[in-house]
Design a protein that fits this description.
With 108 residues, this protein is mostly beta strands. The chain has one helix at residues 2-14, and strands spanning 25-31, 34-36, 39-42, 48-54, 60-64, 69-73, 78-83, 89-95, 98-107. The chain is built from 1 helix and 9 strands; from the N terminus they run αβββββββββ. The structure holds copper (II) ion. Residues 61, 63, 70, 96 line the site of copper (II) ion.
Length: 108
């Protein structure tokens, strides 16, 4: 009976980890029609998760022509946008509903 326990224990120990490593996540806030922070540094060559929260009293649209994303964020809500893997460089994003509101992803 005892060896059954050890076989089961070895099977459990030799299973691969079920959860893959999480993508690195970065928070961006839209407040007073500015991005906070306005420069967000993310690693090159990996998929990254951006969590964009809208603290403005009106809807905003997080958009970038350079990394090709576009998503509306209701006031008081947040969205998740996946970007990358990106090459090193600076990638502009903006609020398409308030186009003077601009920021950059700094990919290093
Ligand atoms: Cu748009």
């Amino acid at each position: 009976m005892r060896h059954v326990f050890w076989v089961a224990a070895l099977l459990i120990l030799s299973l691969p980890a079920v959860a893959p490593a999480d993508d690195p996540a970065f928070s961006i806030m839209m407040k007073n029609h500015q991005f906070v922070p306005s420069e967000v540094q993310i690693p090159a060559g990996v998929k990254a998760k951006l969590v964009v929260r809208n603290e403005n009293p009106t809807a905003s649209e997080f958009e970038s022509n350079q990394f090709h994303r576009e998503k509306v964020v209701a006031p008081g809500q947040q969205i998740t946008v996946y970007v990358g893997p990106l090459d090193p460089g600076s990638y502009e994003f903006f609020d398409d509903f308030h186009p003077q509101t601009r920021g950059h992803l700094i990919v290093k």
